[in-house]
Amino acid sequence: MYLSKFFIPITKDLPTEAKIKSHQLMLRAGMIKQSSAGIYSWLPLGFKVMKKIEQIVREEQNFIGAHEMLMPTIQSSEIWKESGRFDDYGEEMLRIKDRQGREMLYGPTNEELITDVFRSSVKSYKSLPQLLYHIQWKFRDEIRPRFGVMRCKEFYMKDAYSFDLSDEEAKKSYNKMFYSYLKTFNRLDLKAIPMVADTGPIGGDLSHEFVILAESGESKIYADKKIFEIDPTQYNFDDSSLQKMREDFTKIYAVTDEKYKKDNFNKLVKKENQIITKGIEVGHIFYFGNKYSKPMNCLIDDKDGKKTLVKMGSYGIGVSRLVGAIIEAKYNNEIMKWPKSISPFDVVIIPKVSKNNNENLEKAEKVYIQLKKQNIDVLLDDVDENMSNKFKKHDLIGVPYQIIIGAKSEGDNFEFKELNSKSEILSLEKIKLKLNR
Amino acid sequence: MYLSKFFIPITKDLPTEAKIKSHQLMLRAGMIKQSSAGIYSWLPLGFKVMKKIEQIVREEQNFIGAHEMLMPTIQSSEIWKESGRFDDYGEEMLRIKDRQGREMLYGPTNEELITDVFRSSVKSYKSLPQLLYHIQWKFRDEIRPRFGVMRCKEFYMKDAYSFDLSDEEAKKSYNKMFYSYLKTFNRLDLKAIPMVADTGPIGGDLSHEFVILAESGESKIYADKKIFEIDPTQYNFDDSSLQKMREDFTKIYAVTDEKYKKDNFNKLVKKENQIITKGIEVGHIFYFGNKYSKPMNCLIDDKDGKKTLVKMGSYGIGVSRLVGAIIEAKYNNEIMKWPKSISPFDVVIIPKVSKNNNENLEKAEKVYIQLKKQNIDVLLDDVDENMSNKFKKHDLIGVPYQIIIGAKSEGDNFEFKELNSKSEILSLEKIKLKLNR
Predict the structure, then answer these.
(1) Is B371 in the same domain as B429?
(2) Best mutation site among B8, B98, B377 for testing chain A: the one with the most A CBs within 10 Å?
(3) How far is CA B285 from CA B163, B182, B333, B394, B431, in A?
(4) HSE, side-chain direction, 13 A CA sphere, residue A57
């Protein structure tokens, strides 16, 4: 991609409405544009990052055997009346009347709709366990949307639902999702800690929030620092290993503020291991048994032909919110460095361009063609601008690797820089090896 | 994928509410489930097909240099008041009041929002031409939704927008999209004919509908049969070839009913070449110059530094509607055969399974593993059901190739069948070659 052809409205001004660094960066780097309070358009740079996050989430859902589908954004109020949540949900639910006066709503979550899909589709225990998920826009009519995509009205979320015959089987599904979440955040280069959490309007008695530490977080968290030492990659994908995984995490104290009790914290965690800080919730999982299957009469035949209520759980990851959360974690000292797995481009070529001398640009174009041939996604900064401004701009865009074509490049050797590191002079072959690592 | 683990609620009943064959098939094959009038959930089988169509649309948009982004579903009424369409649009627009009483709407189309994004981002002719697109859910509050995903309320659409400095440049963008559409439909194995069309609520004076012929179509079309003989693959992606392409298509009579005039038709088209039939609109492109840039004051600096109104066009493809349209075109004599490019699976293995004999199933599993190793996406029908029922089921699912493991398979040779053709006995190596063609 040539930068001059890309749609990336970078702005030098620090937007006054943006109070946290992810919101500032996303506006300055032209990743998003607000269309109305709490509602954003995703411009190509932001969109590209969000899509890469979405794809990692998808792959890790598929890995544990979840099936992707898609439920609509607009739902009928009827199923919400069946579950009892139509009245309970409060004003955050965007309620709509269609032209015929029917009560509709923009789904803030999908427990009711998936239960309705399931009860009309599955009759027998033979089809269980079943994991279904979708990645779809949700809407919550926040009274004070803020922090950019971190607390906005229209947001992109992966929500999965599990269906099992018994509590015991259902816990296995819960563990699979727990595992999938650890793997997902690991691939996003995030240290996300599962914390015992309150279940809120979703309901149930077993719930974990996955939280990354960040000053700007809205959740207060209390933890034993030993929980940060567990290596999530040590577990295998089988029921007993997954059970051990959850036990390993659960036996160490880590809770969000709704679950915090001072006495417990002091009793269970040594003073020197106590961590009290703030975090950003990036995922939340729930097990709630028959909370929805009971009022909505979602029954299946068990092995003896007896009708039984299906046991359900739900599992969310905020895909659009993760873009902001990752920036909160990775943007420091005015330099953004995207994790390689979700960077908008693999590498950026920055030639020193001037009106009277095309030599560097021509060199850059040759390198560009060679890298493209290797399926490396390259951004070429062909803009006529001084190098100091260019570097500042690329500190915002955050592509982790740069090939700088100026005074230091000679023949087939180029200045290669990883953000936050020193540059080195390397042959194009060596650069390719580094990029393909 | 093992069929027994897949979420695919196939039903033998012919749904009474479904009047056309695509709607019937999609319900029977468990591709969709209605959640409320005109609103559907996409179950895994339907979702998979829709995603493949989406990806082809995306690749062909990217090919012509369009940049993908994403605008939200919920928009403020303010920009629609600027353009004058808030009052004009009528009751099909789903109007919403948020909790603070602000007038919002669920976007039926995005000319206003993209104009707002553009006017705040681009100031200079140097950034032109610019093509932006997104693939997003839209909502039209149809009074009588019908025909399944063909005329529903919530639908998935690719809409692109072009921005140019002059009418002349803008026509080049129009031609690029025209070309992209021909290529897209070609890859979907559809014969879509560009027809001169009315511009309706989008506006402008140049517009083409891309229509496929189908008995169930809602558009009446009048054409010279010579237009079906133009080979769209003969044109190159350069301005002069694209101009010739549009001229070649445009000089042959082909119009939708709003543009039809009997006298013209009889004067311009020989009696024996006249085609009067019905069709399904799968794409629609518009050039409308400054219809939106003028009321919304979307200005750019031209080469002389003079402010000038940007010239715009818009370009839609109904992605969810295409799933239905392709079924209308390809589902005949109770057999659905998906085009290879968008089939939910590359091949299905159908072993003859019985309770007391696992031999065929074990053979099938070995073949399954070997095909998976080659990145072939395989469905394995491991269900215990008689073969006649299995074949009927797979006539609905529509995977174009079958490997049948029963009496006729011997050693490493298997019965291989392309839907609507005779089966043959082939070695697995030969089958792999056929699938990778």
Answers:
(1) yes
(2) B98
(3) 14, 12, 34, 37, 42
(4) 26
Phi, psi of A274 (to 5 degrees): -75, 130
> Phi first, then psi: what are they for B104, rounded to 5°?
-125, 175
The pLDDT of residue B356 is above 90: no
Same domain, B79 and B119: yes
Q: Compute the distance between CA of residue B391 and CA of residue B368 in angstroms, rounded to an integer.
A: 19
Domain region containing A383? 345-436
Q: Which of B69, B72, B102 sits opposite A43 (nearest CB)?
A: B69
Q: Cβ separation of A6 and B67 shorter than 8 Å?
A: yes
Rounded to the nearest angstrom, the minimum Cα separation between A75 and chain B is: 7
First-last CA distance in chain A:
22
Query: Cα–Cα distance between B311 and B304 in angstroms, integer?
Result: 17
Instruction: Tell me the C-alpha distance between B283 and B325, whole Å.
Output: 11
pLDDT in tens, B191-227: 999 998 877 777 777 899 999 988 888 889 999 999 9
Asked whether A72 and B35 are in contact (CB, 8 A), the reply is: yes
Q: What integer pLDDT is reported at residue A32 of this predicted model?
A: 97
Q: Among B293, B316, B336, which residue terminates a domain?
A: B336
The reply to whether ipTM tops 0.90 is yes
Closest chain B residue to A154, measured at CA: B72
- The per-residue pLDDT for range B235-264, each reduced to its tens digit, is 999 999 999 999 999 999 999 888 899 999
- Number of domains chain B contains: 2
Cβ–Cβ contacts within 10 Å for residue B332, how many?
A: 11
- Is B27 inside a domain boundary? yes
Facing residues of B275 across strands? B223
Chain A closest-CA separation from residue B424 CA (Å): 33
Q: Check residue B134 and report its DSSP letter.
A: E
Q: Does B70 touch chain A (CB under 8 A)?
A: yes
Q: Is the domain of B144 the same as that of B274? A: yes
Q: Phi and psi dihedrals of A207, rounded to 5?
A: -160, 140
Above 80 in pLDDT, residue A31?
A: yes
Using pLDDT thresholds of 50, 70 and 90, give the confidence band for residue A188: very high
| CB proximity B374 to A under 8 Å | no
Q: What is the pLDDT of residues A96-132, one digit of tens each?
A: 999 999 999 999 999 999 999 999 998 899 999 999 9
Distance set, CA B181 to CA A102, B94, B158, B225, B317 (Å): 37, 29, 11, 20, 8
Whether residues A358 and A287 share a domain: the answer is no
A151 and A278 within one domain:
yes
Q: With pLDDT > 90 as the criterion, what percentage of chain B qualifies?
A: 87
B258 and B362 in a common domain: no
- What does the pLDDT read at residue B196? 87
CATH code, B141: 3.30.930.10
Q: What's the rounded mean pLDDT across residues B54-61?
A: 98
Residue B275's alpha-carbon distances to A192, A203, A295, B250, in angstroms, are 63, 61, 57, 16
For the cut 90, the answer to whether the pLDDT of residue A403 exceeds it is yes
Contact B78/A6, CB-based, under 8 Å? no
Under a CB-based contact definition with an 8 Å cutoff, are residues B163 and B195 in contact?
Answer: no
Domain boundary pick from A283, A318, A336: A336
* pLDDT, position A411: 82
pLDDT digits (tens, 9 = 90+) for A195-251: 988 777 777 778 999 999 888 888 899 999 999 999 989 999 999 999 999 999 999
Query: Mean pLDDT, chain A, as a whole number?
Result: 94
Helices (runs of H) and strands (runs of E) counted in chain A: 12, 23
Evaluate the omega torsion of the peptide bond into residue A194 and state whether it is cis, within 30 degrees of 0: no
Q: In which residue are the tokens 């609507």 written?
A: B420
Where residue B369 sits, what CATH number does that domain have?
3.40.50.800
My answer on whether A352 and A261 are in the same domain is no
Rounded mean pLDDT, A59-66: 98
Beta strands B254-256; B299-301: pairing state: unpaired
A387 and A361, same domain (yes or no):
yes
